[in-house]
Each structure stands twice: as C-alpha cells, then as structure tokens.
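> agent: user asked for a holo structure of the chain below bound to pyridoxal-5'-phosphate. Plan: (1) validate sequence alphabet, (2) canonicalize SMILES, (3) run complex prediction with ligand conditioning, (4) return tokens. Step 1... ok. Step 2... ok. Step 3 dispatched.
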Amino acid sequence: MTELNIHVELTESKKEKPLSDQLEFGRVFTDHMFIANYTEGEGWADHRIEPYRPLTLDPAAIVFHYGQTVFEGLKAYRSEDGTVRLFRPEQNMKRLNASSDRISMPKVNEELALEALKKLIEIDQDWIPTAEGTSLYIRPFVIATEAYLGVSPSTKYQFMIILSPVGSYYKGGIEPVKILVENDYVRAVSGGTGTAKTAGNYASGLKAQEIAGQKGYAQVLWLDGIERKYIEEVGAMNVFFKINGEVITPALNGSILEGITRKSVIELLNHWDIPVIERKVSMEEIRTAQRNGLLEEAFGTGTAAVISPIGELSWKDEKLVVNNGEIGKLSEKIYAKLTGIQTGKVEDPFGWVVEIK
Ligand SMILES: *Cc1c(COP(=O)(O)O)cnc(C)c1O
C-alpha cells in the first residue's frame, strides 16, 4: 500500500468545546477518531476517520485478558501565526512499531500513520487550544481484537488515533515536585517490557504511585529491578541530574523507556556544548553528591510536562533537597527552548518541528 485511502465520515453533532482555562489532561476528546483494521494474511485495511464514539468489541478480545496493546503520546501546538506544529512525530511512529514488535504485534506503515494523523488533526483543528501552555494531546494506539482466550498473538488488531485538548501542565508556573524513591516495587527489568509503551507497565506501576500519593509525593523514582540501586525513571518520565557542572541520565539498559524528550534534551545539551553523559547512576551517588553540595539540579522529561523539576527526593527516610526546592537555571533554559521550538516562538535549528497547515 503506497497511497492512503481514508474514508471520512464527519459527525452530525459537533460537541461543545471546553474553555481553555478549564482544560485538564486527557478527559475531553475531539469530534473524530482514526481507525484501521488488521487481519493476519491481509494486512492493514479499512482506514477511516469517524465520529468519536465507543467501540464494540468481543468480550473475549485478547486486549482485555492479556494486555496485548501499545500506545504513543505526542502533542500538536497552534503557533501565533496560526500554523499547527507537531514535535518529532516520526519518532513516535517509529517507537510505536518498536513497542509493537516487543509484544508480537504487526507494524503500521509509519509514513501513512503520520498522514492519517495529519488528516485527523486537520479535520478537528478547531479543537487545538491556543492559550499559553495548552495543546492537543495525540494518542495513537493498537489493540488486539481477536476473540480468543488462548495465550498467543492475536490475528486481528485495530490501530486508532484519538485527540484530546489539554491544559497547561503548569497552571501556576513551574513548581518543582517531591519524589519518593521506591525501594519495594519495580517498574521493569532488562528482558521485560520496560522499553515498550505497553499497558502492563503502567498497570504494574499504579500501586507504588498510589502509596506515594498518599504520603504526599507527586511521583516515584524507580530503581533497577535487580539490585534496587541504580536509577531508572521517574513516574512515566526519564530523569536527569546535574552534578558539579555535568548532566547525567541513566543509560538505556533494556528496561528504560527511550523518551523522545530525553533524546531531544541530550541533543540540545550537545548543541550547547554542555557536558552530558548517559551512564549507570546509583541512588548512593546522588546522595553523596547532595551531601557534598554538588547536586545542582534534577528533573524529569516527558511529552506531558516537557521538563518537571525535582525539588526533593525522599530515600529511606532521608530527604534530599535539590537546589533549595527551586527550579534550576539549566532546567529552566531547557524548558524555555523546547517549548519555544514546539510552539514556534523560537527558531528550530534541528528540524524537529513538522508543520501542518
Ligand atoms: C512515554 C514515557 C516516557 C517519556 O517519553 P517521551 O517520548 O519523552 O514522552 C518516559 N518513560 C515512560 C515510562 C514513558 O511511558
């Protein structure tokens, strides 16, 4: 298939759009959605954009029982000149396929998936909010739909894209968060599915997140699944530390999800000639650096928040305050540059942005 033939069925009853200042994350969806169906032996077919509505699936569909499903997350921004911009969307489609491969699902055609996404956004473009910090969150995902209770890869799938206008992650300005270092539960181990954006990883993280929330922490910092020593990620974000002038992020070790924001931050730091290194980093090392006054900054990276500064790490009843609980200079500079590129306010020297009309 080289040309995308998408059947479009427009809605007859457009929904009311939420006010910009009342937007939350992921609660409201636009008027339309994209769907394609896959059947083993035939490939992807029946590409269509339809009114947003509930699905009808067999209760025995494999996705409900064995979690054979992957997802992506990216954003579209409306810039001041009215153009709509996507940030490195081809990276998301590539990762969608890498995730699918890990759990024995068929790949989508990345270029065509991107075309479908652009077409869907074009149709629902009035839903892209314009207020500072707002955007249109894009959720592509694939689900296993065959009705079969045997544990084996599905022979049928649906690829879908839904859109959700989202509010500013930082309503009252960027606030550094308190993080609980998790010593009991783990997110992933090398050889498992940590490198894939697949549902089970998130279900397995809910318990630790819930406990941390009850204790007053915004998120957990995940340690490695074998020794509980080395830092992996923070919530569903990658994590960076600035120690004595050098930026460090855990190396991709087979259990960490390779974030596109992570990759962009590394490329940006290289561009600025700021030393950045990907390597193993232990919690012990972070504590020592903090005690010696060398832990300058810590922050999470991900599409939702872009940069999320860490103001305090709680580890085994010890509270490690970072930069007096304030946002660091470098965190702020990275945040300004990335969001500036995404919204078209500053020049994009990397060619990261894809404009759609
Ligand atoms: C999506 C995700 C990230 C961040 O990836 P981005 O591409 O930067 O949004 C990091 N960790 C986990 C576990 C994730 O699911």
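> agent: step 4 complete. Summary for user: The pocket of pyridoxal-5'-phosphate is lined by residues 73, 197, 233, 236-238, 257, 259-262, 301-303 (CB under 6 Å). The CA atoms of residues 35 and 154 lie 17 Å apart.
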